[in-house]
Amino acid sequence: MRSFAEHRLRAISRVALSHYVANGLSVALGLLLVSAAVHAWLGAAAAAAASVGVIVCAPPDLPGPRRGKLWQMVPAPLLGIPLFFAVQWLYPDPVRLGLLLVPGTFVAFLIMAWGKRGIPVAVAVMFSMVFSMAAAPRVPPGGDPLPAALAITAHFALGAWLYVAYALVANHLLNARYRVQLVADALLSLAALMRVQARQFDAAPLQEADTGTTAPASLAAAGGTDAQPLTGLLLLRQAALAEQLQSARNIVLEAPTTPARQRLAGMLLLVLEMRDHLLACELDVDALKAHPGHVPVLHALRGVLQQVAQAMGQLSDALLVGRRPPAFTDLRPALSQVRWSDPLPPDTFAGGPSPQAMARSLADRIGHINDEALRMVALARNEATPDLAAVRAGWQMFVSPTAWSLAPLTTVWRWDAPPLRHAVRAALAMAAGFVVAQALPWGTHAYWILLTIVVVLRGSLAQTLERRNSRVGGTLLGCALAAALLAAHLSAWQLVLCLTVAQAVAHGFAVRRYLITAVAATVLGLVQSHMLHGGASPGVDLLERLADTLIGTGIAWAFSYVLPSWERSQIPALIDRALAAQARHAREALALGQLQAVDNAPELAWRLARREAYDSLSALVQATQRSLAEPRAVQPPLAALERLQARCYQLLAQLTAIKTLLLLRRGRLDAARLQVPLAHTADTLTHLLEGPADAVRPADPPADPAQPDDAQRWPDPHDGDLGPWMVRRLGLAIQHAAEVRAAAREAAGLADC
């Protein structure tokens, strides 16, 4: 019971100290400061309108690099202020207002063509129209709405621009903290990946060799199964880590000019290396499990991985609280003692390395993880200096772009383009929601239906269903909480404090867990409405919000089937991207220049190729996972895609092991002898992965006379010549590349059917 309580307390503390909570608190503080300043200057009504300006401009305010922060924030007020005014002006005329909302929605959702950086801007633009309806003044019949619209828009714009200025300052001040938090987050994700990898050393003999399949993505999402390999879950963990690493790169690798920044950048680079070594641990596990007596060996290796994972978790906790992390004990001595205990007859492993040799090779790969952990902890304890030559040479190439370009917009004008279809779908949904809201007897709260549509309707059915469930549940809980707050008859300043807390929670958990955001957003909306309009009957208001939420989620759910962009239509492009990335990574990993001293140019090129190989595979994994929520008739070929992902994963593992030998063990390799096999393998992989659809494997080069012909002659991977091991890895890489191409051909062919 105590250990469970400690585990929960540790999890809660990690959330409380995370970058998304810090960002949420920063946004909430900005809301409080702007509202208080405008309240003291212009009064309560102006402060309420200014707070709407803050809420509208808050979505793009996410942790990001200092460079480009202004350009990330500015589009929201530039686009939002005119739309806010237009809604205010046209609000008395529902027909004209509807004619503004529908094309405005289309334009706003089209901004999502810029990807992750465009989504918060699109949300902000939509909020400017929807919240303008919530703050619309009551104009007497026949009265001129223009003066009131100009006045409230001025207060809205004041709050928006004040918040933009605040966001720039806050992001600058929090930059150092964000760097620490993002590295800590990456370490926690790496530790989770290690624990999943360690589970492979526990499982029964894998069935993949017999069935040719991997764990279904649906099972993998639930944590894997005992009967099937954990490849599916590993791929999901890899995808999550890849996404976190890109967020960390954007901030941590920006201008590492001080010792503290350099240490964090060095730690992030070590996370990348440890991920590679973890991937290489995938190799030879199946072969080891085919022999009796493997349990003690794999059990010992699993224990080492679990110890390193625990150390990474402790290091993350130490970074978050700002204390010196505990020292890490070198586990190499324990790994050097790994031996196969049971005698094996020679004929069980003739023609390849013995189980003893493979176990020693696997232990050596885990030893690399141990070595990186030692360097990581030494950096965190300020006992070592980072090597940042590659980062200093081209850190701009590893971070996401910050400048806005028209290029994404020029690619969406095709009827099958997902951003265009989503924009049309959203505009139609908003039109339907607006018509329904006008027909309801409580039409004064029409904006709540539209707001629900905005936050629920996503680009994929899986995301829409998740948002639908979270929105309904969060609204129920939020209404109950808001009812309690409004029944307490709090003062204006107390309500502002409630708004501040709600804004912090809503913004901080918007990406992490939308259910929490939905609860906080409901409280935020109800309290904001109460402050803007006096809150005459909170009980009736709550019931109306519940009904509006159900109507809005129903409309969003229904329109998710209108002009759908099923994942099946995106699969061929994702497969092509994955094949191209694998081929490029193979060329860079097998470059002959790596047999010499590594300089910045080949190191940088290989790192960029490695990132794209991981990212492209992660995109394919995530698309496959999202497709599970789609109707069975339009689902892509899941089994074929899972095979393709597993083969790509295995090819990455082989190339990673080869690259490790080239970088860390070049002194035990005969460069002259390996030039022909390396060049042949690079050409073969390129031909298989990027050649014509019916590409076949080219003929093998002449056999290496030094290659062992039986297990007795295989050198020890710790002390002997590594040439035979390299040649073996190269041959396996070619085999896996052929399997990747065959799986890609099958998956793409079935997806086009």
H/E element sequence: HHHHHHHHHHHHHHHHHHHHHHHHHHHHH
Q: What's the average pLDDT?
A: 82
| Radius of gyration based on Cα positions | 29 Å
Tell the overall outline: globular
Low-confidence segments, given as residue ranges, are 205-228, 345-349
Describe the structure.
The chain has 29 helices and no strands. The chain starts with a helix and ends with a helix. It has 753 residues and is mostly helical.
Keywords:
single chain; 753 residues; mainly alpha; 71% helix; globular
What's the quick description here?
With 753 residues, this protein is mostly helical. The protein is built from 29 helices and no strands. 50% of the residues are buried.
List the helices and strands and how they pair.
Layout: H1 2-16, H2 19-42, H3 44-57, H4 69-73, H5 75-90, H6 94-110, H7 119-134, H8 146-200, H9 208-211, H10 217-221, H11 231-252, H12 259-280, H13 285-289, H14 294-321, H15 332-336, H16 355-380, H17 389-394, H18 407-410, H19 418-439, H20 446-456, H21 461-487, H22 492-508, H23 514-533, H24 538-559, H25 567-589, H26 600-627, H27 638-664, H28 671-690, H29 723-752
Helix pairs in contact: 2-3, 2-8, 2-22, 3-7, 3-8, 5-6, 5-7, 5-8, 6-7, 6-19, 7-20, 8-11, 8-12, 8-14, 11-12, 11-26, 12-16, 12-27, 14-16, 19-20, 19-24, 20-24, 21-23, 21-24, 22-23, 25-26, 25-27, 25-28, 25-29, 26-27, 27-29, 28-29
